[in-house]
Amino acid sequence: MPRSVNAVASRAKRKRILKMAKGYFGRKKNVWTVAKNQIEKGLQFAYRDRKAKKREFRKLWIQRINAGARLHGMSYSQLMGAIGKSGIELNRKVLADLAMNHPEAFKAVVEKVK
Hints:
- GO terms for molecular function: rRNA binding; structural constituent of ribosome.
- It comes from Roseivirga seohaensis subsp. aquiponti.
- Binds directly to 23S ribosomal RNA and is necessary for the in vitro assembly process of the 50S ribosomal subunit. It is not involved in the protein synthesizing functions of that subunit.
- Keywords: Ribonucleoprotein, Ribosomal protein, RNA-binding, rRNA-binding.
- By secondary structure, the chain is an all-alpha fold.
- The chain has a single domain, classed as CATH 1.10.1900.20.
- It contains five helices and no strands.
- Helix 1 runs parallel beside helix 2 and helix 4 packs across helix 5.
- The mean pLDDT is about 95.
């Protein structure tokens, strides 16, 4: 009697992986072993970069706040220290948005903490 293998599940697994590889260049999109390796690597990158994205946005916000603060004669660290002491509860994301898109509102915040 021949060995029984679950061909339906195996084919479904390969089909799912190749579907995920759609849009890749060259053999990465249609050769099973190459596509499987590339999908695994892509999923690793996706997991890693979901964490890195948060760090990169925080760095960007800090740069924008620093640039806005220096226009008003303060450094980033001086501004954040003064905001903490004055009890203003604005996070970096909001402060960066104010510095970029609403400079008059950002100036009002800086003047209040000076």
